[in-house]
Amino acid sequence: MAETRPPPCSQGTTIHSLASRLRRLPPSCGPVRLVGVDGHAGSGKSTFAGQLARALGDAPVLHLDNMASHDELFGWTGRLLTQVIEPFRRGETAHYTPYDWRARRFGPPHPLPTAPVVLVEGVGAGRRALRPHLAHLLWMELPHEEAWTRGRQRDGEEQREFWDGWVRAERQHFAEDPSRPFANSLVQQCEKGYEVLPGPGKRVGPDQALTQGDGPSAMC
Questions:
Q1: CB burial of residue 25 (10 Å; 0-12, 13-18, 19+)
Q2: I need a surface site. Which of 25, 71, 148, 173 has the fewest CB within 10 A?
């Protein structure tokens, strides 16, 4: 399968302009501006979050892979609220227990300090339970089939069985709790860097039901 070249950037906001805008937002979780980076698995969330964190002066990044587990691919909401959100709301350093995917167990507590901006990166970062605590939600604008193909190629044949289960779980998650319709910004990878475009925004309240999926990226 030939690799699709990213399109050239047009007139969207650059990553550095985005960083400046995020710094100016009001805090959303205690003293923290919590920013979600969501999208399909394989869409480039981790790479983008790393670059955005550097543009923000090395902002802390929480990877949701550390909150999930083999038994709870999307059942980590309570753990995240207890270990991260509640301490942040009190203005305290959070301590979460990262999951070791090889050892199949949770490790010792890892500190996550408060900061002007903290990024939460991973599939489900814009889920219904987290949106009230987010200052901004970013969605990686890449169709799910292309994203999953990238992810499978990245992880190799040894992860094929895991990916088969993951795709089923992700489809179900976004069918029940879509993120893209609530994204404040859409992120597209370009030939050189990224382009950040306006998103659908908060047209429906965080606790209201929505019958559509994740827009054009999730047409199954």
A1: middle
A2: 71
pLDDT per position as a tens digit, 47-94: 999 999 999 999 999 999 999 999 999 999 999 999 999 999 999 999
The domains of the chain are located at 15-155+177-203
Cα distance between the two ends of the chain: 20
CA distance 43 to 38: 9
Q: pLDDT tens across 179-219, in order?
A: 999 999 999 988 778 899 999 985 433 333 332 344 443 32
Place of tokens 């999930």: 68
Bridge partners (DSSP) listed for residue 186: 139, 197
Q: Are 85 and 2 in contact (CB under 8 A)?
A: no
Report d(CA 169, CA 215) in Å as an integer: 18
The amino acid occupying position 52 is L
Structure tokens at 171: 């489809």
| Contact of 48 with 186, CB cutoff 8 Å | no
Q: List b or e across 87-116, with b for residues whose CB sees 16 or more CB atoms inside 10 angstroms.
A: bbbeeeebebeebeeeeeeeeeeeebebbe
CATH number of the domain at 15-155+177-203, please? 3.40.50.300
